[in-house]
Amino acid sequence: MNRDDYSHGFIVPFIALYFVWLGKEKLKSIPVKPNIIGGLILMILANLMLLLGHTGGIVAIQEVSIIVIIPGLVLLLLGTEYFKALIFTISYLILMIPSILDVVVNRIQWPFQLLSATTASILLEILNIPVFQEAQFLHLSNITLEVAAECSGVRYLISIIAIAVPLAYFTQQRFWRRMSLVAIGIIVGILVNIVRVTLIGVWAYYDGGIVHGPGHIFQGLFVSVVGYIFLFMGAWVLKESPSFNIARHRVENGGEGSNINRAFTNIKPFNKVWLIAILFLAVLGVYIHQYKSIPVPLTNSLHYFPLTIGDWKGEDIDYQKSTFPFRIKNADQEITRKYKGTSGNEITLYVAYFESQHQGKELIYYQFQKLYNVSETAEIDLRDTESISVNRAFVRGDDINNAVFYWYNCNGRNIGGRNEVKLITATGGLLNRRTNGAVIMVVSDVNKLEELQNTFIHEKKFIQNVIPVLNHYMGDSVIEK
Questions:
Q1: pLDDT tens profile 268-311
Q2: CA nearest 190: which of 152, 219, 138?
Q3: If 0-12 CB within 10 Å is exposed, 13-18 middle and 19+ buried, where does residue 368 land?
Q4: Could you tell me if 417 and 285 lie in one domain?
């Protein structure tokens, strides 16, 4: 619901059900032989994943659990042969799970950004529009455009594939025709995004106004809409004669005069495997409904966090007037302070503390994906030969570039890895119902690239001074009785 590039997910389960309905005659011929051991293993695994995801407020694990529990139910209630017959339909459900698709998308997003930027720059030059390409940036005479991760077209390509697969299955009978239609959808999606970026460049160069054109018609959704149009045109071009389709359909489903036994074999309407499935789901549902994490407030409020840290002098920033680009919603306590060093360098410190986490109130903030994508691990040396791992990033913006260090604090421990934070949150929520934690960011504006390394050096010095103070605040959280 919150992401246009995955809004196709709502139609996926209905298409999957239609796949099942089309194969109902074949399914009726398969004997029902419950695979209790295999089904229970997948059910237990899925339940554990759902519990960890729910207690830790980790949406990704919850999303994946549904793709595990459905085949578990099929094995438990109907058996291995049914699972084999439904494996295509179950696999198709992956196209409605953002966290699974994101794993693939995040790996190929950058190459697609470069492809779109490079090809669009060539097309703009052909159109006599002067352009200088710098990685994913297109510098025109009056504006600089960025082919951002969201503009790579990959995510909207997923929605095209989600529609291309059932369209190919429903309209084509030969395997090569089905694959050709899916390939058409993929190729068109790639080409349409390149055209979209080029049109944005043309519009921005001659108009200089709204970047995505009149009515925002050149937004990412443009890729899906045009892709769907070409998909249906391709299905019409590749279609076979109706008589052939009907004959083929009859052969695949056993024919009208087939002697295949279409009655379910030796099946009781209600037996022990149904009781097992109902018990599992009922217990899981009750636990999730009743579960509540314990709030863990700070004994020292961040409101009293010192304005003087070493040689750095700070002042609070008004949220209403601030242009600070990194802020997490729904934090229980947060501060945004601007500190100035003796050398005149200004650094913004942002701390957001969560007494507990749940879906929509999380340390790993989904809108920071751009920041996460460009992050690398860095070590900060502290006193007494101690060091901590943090994340370092250079984030390019429309008007201001930012040099960023960020890390997390869970149970008094400073942690850089997001996966480690998720694991601590999930296990802490499941074992002792504690999901508290904080995210800490140190951010500086960077006007020139030549200043970047010096800026990182100043930020490291500030972090070395601020860590002991933060540890005093983060280490004194208490469980609310």
A1: 555 788 888 888 889 888 888 888 888 888 888 888 889 988 88
A2: 152
A3: buried
A4: no
